[in-house]
Amino acid sequence: MEEIYKFAIKVAYQAGEELMKFLFQPHQIDYKGEINIVTEADLASERLIKEAIQNQYPQHAILAEESGLKEGGKTEPKWIIDPLDGTTNFAHGLPWFCVSIALEIDGEIVLGAIYNPVLKEMFSALKGQGAFLNDKPIKVSQTKNLLKALLATGFPYDIQKRPEPVLSRFKAMILRARGVRRAGSAALDLCYVACGRFDGFWEERLHPWDTAAGKLIVEEAGGRVTDFKGDKYSIYGKEILATNGFLHEDMIKILTSVQEGVNNEKN
Ligand code: IPD
Ligand code: CA
Ligand code: CA
User: Fold this and answer.
1) From the alpha carbon of 85, which atom of ligand 1 is closest?
2) Rounded to whole angstroms, how far apart are CA atoms 74 and 68?
3) CA-154 nearest atom, ligand 1
4) Atom of ligand 1 at shortest distance to CA of 182?
5) What is the pLDDT of residue 258?
6) Is the distance from the beta carbon of residue 206 to the nearest atom of ligand 1 less than 6 Å?
7) Which pLDDT belongs to residue 261?
8) What spacing in Å lies between the alpha carbon of 264 and ligand 2's midpoint?
9) Closest ligand to 209 CA?
10) Which residue, by CA, sits nearest to atom 2 of ligand 1?
11) Is the CB of 208 within 6 Å of ligand 1?
12) Domains delineated in the chain
């Protein structure tokens, strides 16, 4: 497993450096939805990662954002890849994005590597072995009070069509915390919870590639990851709440009270 872990880190690094070649250049933009875009850089990064995996582990399955699921003879182990998390930032020349690579075996994420090539920060975790930032162990924060907490969130691409309950949850949370950031990369949001720069993160309607590596990195850094009710998190599920553990119950209360509020309004 150590060997596969090192391989994942190496490929995340190479894909991140590939992305840097396209940053601050004019982009070829294609539309996956009204505000959901893909650039030539997403595709180049995904190609590089998939080729590396197919050369090294031809039997492994690959679930990649831009090309979907390819079974290499078996359904597992399965690589789960976001070749560029933060595409909107990238396309606008806002240097806040990363590459995210995870490996799933028997329904569990066993390793993850997330690389921010701008800051040259490699976040990684191997199940049971802790989480690391550039090879140094990382831990979640000790913040116990929401008024002293810096939180992160994001908005789904269909926000304009389905603004609720996303906006109500954002409103409830920003009125309770020291601050809430919407930086534009869910994978980096999770890494920042893992290393204590953020104290908590929530988002809904994400995809497996957004959270697979980050979920393990947060857990291995001592944090807690669940859905909004506090139940077991699945990368195939619809909601993620990741915190330092101390803030988890308070955040669940806020997130679920909004859900109830929205249901009550409908009834
Ligand atoms: C997006 C980012 C963003 C989150 C979106 C994601 P992409 O991923 O992680 O922060 O709010 O919901 O889809 O499209 O840049 O890979
Ligand atoms: Ca993403
Ligand atoms: Ca992406």
Assistant:
1) 16
2) 15
3) 11
4) 10
5) 87
6) yes
7) 60
8) 32
9) 2
10) 185
11) no
12) 2-137 (3.30.540.10), 146-266 (3.40.190.80)
User: Global pTM?
Assistant: 0.96
Cβ < 5 A residues, ion ligand 3: 65, 82, 84
The mean pLDDT values, 10 residues at a time, for the chain of 267 residues are 96 98 91 92 97 95 93 83 98 97 97 98 98 98 98 96 95 97 98 98 98 98 98 97 98 89 53
